[in-house]
Amino acid sequence: MNKIYLDNAATTPLSSEVLNEMMPYLTGDFGNPNSLHSFGRTAKSAIELARERIARAIGCEPSEVYFTSGATESNNWALNGIAKANRHKGNHIITSKIEHPSILETCKKLEREGFRVTYLDVDEMGLVRIDQLLHYIGADTILISIMSANNEVGTIQNIQAIANIAKEKNVIFHTDATQAVGAVSFSVREMGIDAMSISGHKLNGPKGVGALYVHDGVVITPFMNGGEQESGLRAGTSNVPGIVGLGKAVEIATRDIMANSKKVRELRDYFIKKVVELIPMTQLNGHPVQRLPNNINLSFGMVEGESLMYLLDLNGIAVSTGSACSSGSVENSHVLSAMGIAPDLAQGAVRFSLGRNTTKQDIEYVIEKLVECVEKLRKISAMSKSQVGKEDE
Amino acid sequence: MYNPKIMEILQNPQNAGMLRGANAIGRADSDICSDIVKFYIQIEDGRVVDAKFKTFGGATLIAVCSTTANMIIGLTVDELLSFNIRDVLDELGEIAPQKDYCLNLSSQALTNAVEDYYKRLEKEAKASKE
Fold it and tell me: I need a labelling partner for B61 at 20 to 30 A (CA). Which of A96, A191, B23, B69 fits?
């Protein structure tokens, strides 16, 4: 059976180019970068090279790049660290309702600690309501955190516009760029982005490593204490192979951004066109154009997402679903809910996220199996056509 | 929790679809999500001769419904009334605790089907008196 992986928004395979770069630091060059001898110095140079590569890729200074264990840590650190270090200026934070849980949960924690947080609405395509941002931003606002692109529906935010507003109002602007690096070109300094979270494993890099860019002059409290690593802000022996891999992965992703985006976008558009043609009652969730080149989020009327996901899995196709029903609660996607998608269509939403290695042949196979699986589930569906998308009426 | 039996049923559910001769039809809707279960049961001479289901729900719900429909064929109406939905697990194996609601939903749809059957009997009886 063919095995086709279309869950690249969850994680990506490690590229061989990245692995080759990492290998020496997993074997012979195992030194602790804080050691003064040659083993240590070799590891230290490797880390600094990775820092330079990331700085070059996103348009900042190497000294503005801090390594972390991944984007979740970067997001936690950015929000906690910036909010607490700037509390004397105000206690208001603005974010959106469709952020990753690592942002939303940190905001809730900050609220318990006395900060005031405004969660901006999004429109039906997943775009953050800029009018609300302008309305809620005030003299006590110290931080705005809006993701660059959404992990579920792929909508790319108007980051430049948000950065401009933040700059004009003298508010620090952080963006979670976990899904966007490699798909969207960043020049953080030029764009006026003050802090940005990056993940390794979404870019064909290793898991367990990420970075936080913090603009010079933005004050942030340390994330971990007890060591001089990362300028004393993030203590702990550095994950040298991971950092080397991250540096290489970011370099490759930005180097190949045009070619990769073009190839993946063509496959995405072909997939959407064919599926909408072949499967009636198919709805594309997210922005039709302003979306990540590899993201396809579809709801198929009368079809539940989890059963479709498993049925595709039985055909060797890996996709993901954002919502599932469980005892006592419904684990509905907060993103689809915020976009106003009807509960049955939200529960039916399936995300297909393509990767650099996805081929036209893969897509043809997935379309063929998808048609079969949707038909199979519709035959046994207890939902009628007239009920689709109207559950709350 | 991954249960291969559930996956096997998902791929080839038994007793799925409508049943034309059904005289006991029951539906249950989840009050927490969009899940729906519908049973179509045909009862002749006080015994279930055929049963089918339709559902909007995940793999576990499909497997629970399919197994339930299979198990109730041949039962008398009294046996159907006292059918213990947890017996489905003897056939299906363990299900994830968060999927326990699938049993309740299935059970509710069965209860509603039996109610529907008695309502029909009552209606028939009234019609024959008139």
Answer: B23
Query: Which top CATH class is B4-122?
Result: alpha beta
Q: Which of these, A175, A199, A174, lies nearest to A8 by C-alpha position?
A: A199
Is A343 in Cβ contact with B34 (below 8 Å)? yes
B128 touches chain A (CB under 8 A): no
ipTM exceeds 0.85, yes or no: yes
The answer to whether the CB atoms of A307 and B57 lie below 8 A apart is yes
To test the contact with chain B by mutation, choose from A341, A380, A381, A386 the residue with the greatest count of B C-beta atoms within 10 A, namely A380
Residues 6+ apart with CB under 8 A from A197: A71, A74, A75, A78, A174, A175, A176, A177, A178, A210, A211, A212
Q: What is the 3-state secondary structure (H, E, C) of chain B?
A: CCCHHHHHHHHCCCCECCCCCCCEEEEEECCCCCCEEEEEEEEECCEEEEEEEEEECCHHHHHHHHHHHHHHCCCEHHHHHCCCHHHHHHHHCCCCHHHCHHHHHHHHHHHHHHHHHHHHHHHHHHHHHC
A311:B10 CB<8 A: yes
Look up the CATH number of the domain holding residue A59: 3.40.640.10
- Whole-prediction pTM value? 0.94
Q: Is B80 at the interface with chain A, CB within 8 A?
A: no
Q: Known catalytic residues of A?
A: 325
Q: List, for residues A134-182, the tens digit of each pLDDT value.
A: 999 999 999 999 999 999 999 999 999 999 999 999 999 999 999 999 9
Using an 8 Å CB-CB cutoff, list chain A residues near B55: 380-382
Is the same domain home to A49 and A102? yes
**Residue A168: DSSP 8-state:** H
Q: Contacts of residue A380 in chain B, CB cutoff 8 Å?
A: 13, 16-17, 53-55, 62
Tell me, yes or no, whether A251 and A274 share the same domain: no
CATH of residue A357 = 3.90.1150.10
Query: In this complex, do A306 and B35 lie within 8 Å of one another by their Cβ atoms?
Result: no
